[in-house]
Specification:
The protein is mainly α. 71% of the residues lie in helices and 1% in strands. The protein is elongated and about 75 Å long.
C-alpha cells in the first residue's frame, strides 16, 4: 500500500511538473528543430521516460532540465537514424554527453515561449485549430481535457491538432516572433485565441454548465504570461485587464444550484477585489503605453466602469455607452452595437435602447444570435409590453445551446406572460 501511495504521489508530481514545464520544453525544442510537431513528440517521449523512471529514482532536483536533456537525446537518436548526425549534433547536441544540463538563460526561455505563442496562433490555422494547439502546447492540456472543455469528441480535438501541426510544417511557418508591420496583425491573432478560450469558460456556448472555470483560469494564465513576454504592448495589458476584471465576478455569476446570476443582480461583495485591483493596474499600464486605445483596452475600460461601481445603481452607464461607441469605431460589429444599445437603455431609458436594437433586427450576422431577442425582451418588459417580451424571451431560449441559459430565458418568458 505504501508503494502504491508513493507511485501515486510521484505521478501527481509529474503531472504538476508537466503543467509547469511543458510549454518551455516544447518551445526550446521547437527553436532547435524548427518543427513544432516534432518538438511536441519529443517532449511527450520525455514525459513517458519520466513516468517510467521517476517512480523509482524520484523526481530530480531540476525536472525541467531533466526532461529537456532526455528530449534532446531522443532527437540525437532520431538524427543518427536519419544519417544527419554531423549537422544536427553541431546545432543542438554539443554537450549532451555531460550529466548536468545547463540552465537556459531567462531571456532565451522568454524568447522561445513567445515564438511558440505566435506559431501556435498563426493565422494560417483555423480558429478551432489555433485554440486546440495553444491549449495543448502552451497549456499542457491533454486532448481529452480540451475535448471535455469544448464538448467535442477527443478524436475531433486530436485531428485538429494533427492537422494544425501538418499545416505549420507544410506552409513552412517560421518559428519566430514577427517583426515590423506584421507584428500587429499576428499579435491580434494571439489575443483573439486567448480571449476565445476565456469567453468559452466565462459563458459556455453549450452544455449544462453556465461557466467552465478551468478555461477561464487557463486563459488568464496565458494572458499573464504574454504580458511578461511582451511588456510594451498595450493591447496585451488591455487583455489582461479585461480578463482579470471579468474573472473577478466568477463567484457571483452563479447561484447555489449553478443557475446564472446576471450582472445587475450579482452580490458585489462576492466579487474578487484582488483580481479587480490587478485588472485596474494592468489597465493603467496599458494607458501609459499608448494614446490610441485598441479594442482590448476599450473593453477593459468598459468592465472597469462596472468594477468601480460598488452598486449596480452607481454604474456610469453614459461612459460605458461612449466607450462602446469608440469600440464600434475601432472594430465595427453588430454585437458591439447591441451592447451599446443596452448601455444607452440604462443611461437614457429603455425606449432609447429599443430604438437602437430594432435597427439590428435584420442584420444577417445576428440572425441566430440569442442575445438579440433576449435584450429586446428585456427592454420590452421594462416598457410594459409584456406579451411581446414573452415572445422574445421564448425565441432567445430556442436559440441558445446552453441549458442553464435556456431555463433562465424560459423563466423570464413565463414571468412576462404572468405580468401581461
Amino acid at each position: 500500500m505504501v508503494v502504491v501511495t508513493a507511485v501515486a504521489d510521484t505521478h501527481r508530481a509529474i503531472d504538476a511538473v508537466w503543467r509547469i514545464e511543458s510549454a518551455r520544453l516544447i518551445a526550446g525544442l521547437a527553436r532547435m528543430l524548427r518543427d513544432v510537431g516534432a518538438a511536441e513528440e519529443l517532449a511527450q517521449d520525455a514525459l513517458v521516460a519520466a513516468l517510467e523512471q521517476w517512480p523509482e529514482s524520484g523526481v530530480p532536483d531540476n525536472p525541467g532540465a531533466w526532461l529537456m536533456s532526455v528530449a534532446k537525446r531522443r532527437a540525437i537518436d532520431q538524427f543518427r537514424r536519419q544519417e544527419r548526425l554531423a549537422r544536427k549534433v553541431e546545432e543542438i547536441g554539443r554537450d549532451l554527453e555531460t550529466q548536468e544540463e545547463p540552465e537556459p538563460e531567462l531571456d532565451d526561455i522568454g524568447d522561445d515561449l513567445l515564438r511558440l505563442v505566435f506559431t501556435s496562433c498563426h493565422p494560417v490555422l483555423s480558429t478551432e485549430a489555433r485554440v486546440a494547439l495553444t491549449l495543448r502546447l502552451l497549456g499542457g492540456l491533454t486532448t481529452d481535457e480540451i475535448a471535455r472543455a469544448f464538448l467535442v469528441s477527443e478524436s475531433t480535438v486530436a485531428q485538429r491538432i494533427v492537422r494544425a501541426k501538418k499545416t505549420l510544417a507544410t506552409k513552412r511557418v517560421p518559428f519566430e516572433v514577427p517583426q515590423g508591420a506584421e507584428l500587429a496583425g499576428r499579435l491580434s491573432s494571439v489575443l483573439e485565441v486567448v480571449y476565445l478560450i476565456f469567453n468559452e469558460g466565462y459563458s459556455a456556448t453549450a452544455g449544462g454548465d453556465w461557466m467552465r472555470p478551468e478555461l477561464c483560469a487557463e486563459a488568464l494564465r496565458l494572458a499573464r504570461v504574454l504580458a511578461q513576454l511582451a511588456p510594451k504592448e498595450p493591447e496585451v495589458h488591455g487583455l489582461v485587464a479585461l480578463l482579470e476584471i471579468q474573472a473577478s465576478r466568477s463567484r457571483a455569476r452563479t447561484g447555489p444550484d449553478g443557475e446564472p446570476v446576471l450582472l445587475l443582480d450579482q452580490d458585489r461583495g462576492r466579487w474578487d477585489w484582488l483580481l479587480i485591483r490587478r485588472g485596474l493596474t494592468a489597465l493603467d499600464r496599458a494607458y501609459s503605453l499608448t494614446d490610441s486605445l485598441g479594442p482590448y483596452v476599450l473593453q477593459a475600460a468598459i468592465v472597469a466602469c462596472h468594477a468601480r461601481a460598488r452598486t449596480a445603481q452607481a454604474t456610469d452607464w453614459a461612459r460605458i455607452a461612449a466607450l462602446y461607441l469608440a469600440l464600434g469605431r475601432v472594430t465595427p460589429s453588430p454585437i458591439v452595437e447591441l451592447n451599446r444599445a443596452v448601455a444607452v437603455s440604462m443611461a437614457e431609458g429603455p425606449a432609447a435602447g429599443l430604438a437602437l436594437v430594432d435597427q439590428l433586427r435584420d442584420v444577417p450576422a445576428l440572425a441566430n444570435y440569442h442575445l438579440l431577442p433576449s435584450v429586446r425582451g428585456d427592454l420590452l418588459a421594462k416598457l410594459g409590453r409584456h406579451a411581446e417580451a414573452r415572445d422574445e424571451f421564448a425565441a432567445a431560449a430556442a436559440q441558445t445551446r446552453n441549458e442553464r441559459e435556456r431555463r433562465l430565458l424560459l423563466d423570464r418568458a413565463e414571468r412576462a406572460a404572468a405580468a401581461g
